[in-house]
Write a structure and sequence with these properties.
This protein is about 20% helix and about 40% strand. It has one helix spanning about 5-35, and strands at about 40, 55-60, 65-70, 75-85, 90-100, 105-110, 115-125, 130, 135, 145-150. The chain is of the alpha+beta class and about 150 residues long. It is built from 1 helix and 10 strands.
Length: about 150
Amino acid sequence: MVRCPGRGIAAAMVWVAFTSAAGAETLAATVEQWGLLGSWAVDCSARPDRDKGALLTYEIRKDGRVMYGRNFGDAKDENEVVSATVNAEGLLNVMVYFPSLQQTREFGLLLTQEGSLRAIYNRNERGVYTIKDGKYVATGAPTPPQQRCD
């Protein structure tokens, strides 16, 4: 019996495309239902600034990808959200790939009852934290609440 490897490859490609599309829909639905979409800042009336506060934007593109934009005033970038899950306590665990840094970072976000957003943790792929337990590792200061700006 002669097998046709082309069919197997084609079937695998269709499966990968289908599961990628299904995963993108699930990711988009997760961030939308959780309430992440839109722009966030510590002070929405202030101009974005690297030291005083960036404007952070989460959006779903027409192709279904979820993007994370950062506006620091003097610099901007866009990075793809590769996963998002909600844990039992309601914390949104987000993984974002940063091509400019050549790394994936994971952060946990909490939506408070008042509607503000707080970063609870932020770590790189090696597990090194910049934010842990809602505090900046370098200073011990609590992360400030961010307000929806749109």
